[in-house]
Write a structure and sequence with these properties.
Jelly Rolls; 3 helices; globular; two-stranded antiparallel sheet; 7 strands; 2 domains; five-stranded mixed sheet; alpha+beta
Length: 167
Amino acid sequence: MRTAILLFALIIGGTFFVQISTLSDSLGQFGKEDKLLSNLSSQANTGASTSLDITYAKTPEERYTGLSDRSNLPADQGLMLVYDMSERHGIVMREMNFSIDIIWLDKTGTIVDIKPNAKPSSYTSRSDKTVFRPDANARYVLEVAAGTAQKYDWSIDDSLKQYLPDT
């Protein structure tokens, strides 16, 4: 019987996983290793391995101001705009100083749309602006540093419910 040592490292969302196993030619043991890899990938796609410090904007005034009063947004922070109803909430880059990713979430925290790398230059005046809207109704809008959605491999139908506010 041949025996081999398998060492693999998997980096997901800044977390380092290492597993050392003794494998025989048994297909049953190989199947267990495949299942471990599948579970780790699933965690990454749901954002479970991310850690962000979220501020919540719940009032109309807080949502209107958004991130426009900041000079930058650290990569580990975000702003969640909380609405009373699910709609196609539009976002503009009024008085913004940096680019952001805009992630729209439904009431369960599932991503319904993403606008990566929204730039401040998309808003030049009240009459000359781009309004970013999701393709589906959303209850929450998460604004994070540009590149965050790609960094964590977020996509439509992924869950970010861990960032929803306590109700």
